[in-house]
Amino acid sequence: MTQVPEVEAKASKKKGMGPLQLIALGVGTSLGSGLFAVSGIAAGQNSGPAVSLCFIIGAIACALVGLCYAELSTMFPKASGASYAYISAALGECPAWLMTWCLVSSYILSISIVSVSWSGYFAAFLAKWHIYISSQILEPLGTVLTFENGSHVLAYGVWPGVLLISLVTLMLSSGTKESIGWNTFFVVLKISVVILFVLFALPAVSSANYTPYIPANQGTFGHFGWSGVISGAVLVFFSYLGFDVVASAGADARNPQRDLPIGILGALTTCAILAVGFSACLVGLVPYLDLANDTSPLATAMSHLQIPFLAEFLNLCILLGFTAGLYGIIYGQSRVLRHVAEDGLLPEIFAKRNKHQAPWVSILFLSFIGAVLAILIPVRLLGGVASLSVLLTFSSVCLSLIVLRKRQPNALRSFRVPGGKWLIPGGGICVCGTGLVTVEPICWLYLGIWLLAGGTIYLLYGRKHSRMKRNLA
């Protein structure tokens, strides 16, 4: 059911996607908001200089889940719904719907995070040309801002990001298509940004910024110390969402049984290496406390390097990459809602297309909610709720593998998770469960409201109108 823009764009391609294209798809989806937006916040508020450990822990957790995805993807190689298909086959339609609703929330939150972070990078880019954007339209609505003269004002919300969402929405509603060539270009662009930053940052890194590597806990769970490292890992966890997208591409892969596991694990490994290198250099350049509320940490780090041309070039690359990423998120998720509506789980209006064949109601729905959240909620909470959604979904996928091994022991599996029936999927559940209990209560509240809305939709509409096909093979 789930379709991402890159997958739909390649649906007509006879040869399909090979391992490298699948890895690029996963890296392109993952490498963005988690790394370039919340890595500084995770360092400044949770882990301190040990932020790279957060990405390593997140990668280890995702490796356990990714192995489960890899086996399930070979059981259902043509399923375009990934987690929905797996959970539906194992646990039933209602749990699968709720987890799909969770993933939709994580992508909506990604829209908000990208737009807020884009605003910060855009302001930094313009500042180099002596064009300054007021901080009152770069912070969530109601944030109290204190100026050097001691005066206090309230912020109006992050409006440059809202304008970006509006522009992308207009493009998508006009039927603009994204091609595989452009996707590959932006993937290379994002990777190049990380590599260039690391290469130029390494000689300027100060060892003093790594001391103490794990600052002492400040008396509150998650505020430095090892609990802070775990909380930071949870905050950046949604950075690795890309392999769910890779698993969704089974119907468009050349050899799903072979290529999907390679794509899933390859994308995860690539993103982990890049994230660790980037985050380690970030805190080596900038004292971690200076990053506590920074939604554009790369721009801040480049100001410490004092290489103006490189800073402007990398800022421009980030702006382009984020714009393309926002385009892809809204494009792909609008197709998700369209397919859900076509299956009867949402009202038919979400499947309605305009003369350009764009699901304009779904596009407007996603864009509107993403823009409102960007105006109202700080990035830290947006990232926390996004990671919570992903953790719940990944836990359900691991549980689905255990259930399907019991129910369908003889089903064709060209790839099997090593370690027996319980070790890897059980480990994935335990690791994700540990992350769940460390999430701030307010994040649970926000997600609970979202799930309550999703459950109500299912009970009042989806259950009666469902036309979901169960042939997932």
Give a written overview of the molecule:
With 473 residues, the protein is mostly helical. It has 18 helices and two strands. The two termini are 13 Å apart.
The radius of gyration is 21 Å
Low-confidence residue ranges? 1-14
Main sheet specs:
2 strands, antiparallel
Helix content: 55-70%
Shape from CA axes? globular
Strand order of the largest sheet: 1-2
Total of DSSP H or I helical runs spanning 4+ residues: 18
**Span from first to last CA?**
13 Å
What is the average per-residue confidence, as pLDDT, rounded to a whole number? 85
Strand elements, count: 2
- The structure class reads mainly alpha
SSE succession: HHHHHHHEEHHHHHHHHHHH
> What is the beta-strand fraction?
under 5%
SSE topology sketch:
Elements: H1 5-9, H2 19-30, H3 33-36, H4 39-47, H5 51-75, H6 83-91, H7 93-127, E1 144-146, E2 152-154, H8 159-173, H9 180-201, H10 225-235, H11 242-247, H12 256-285, H13 297-305, H14 308-342, H15 360-376, H16 379-407, H17 423-438, H18 441-465
Antiparallel strand pairs: 1-2
Short description:
With 473 residues, the protein is mostly helical.
From the structure above, extract its key features.
473 residues; mainly alpha; two-stranded antiparallel ribbon; 18 helices; 66% helix; 1% strand
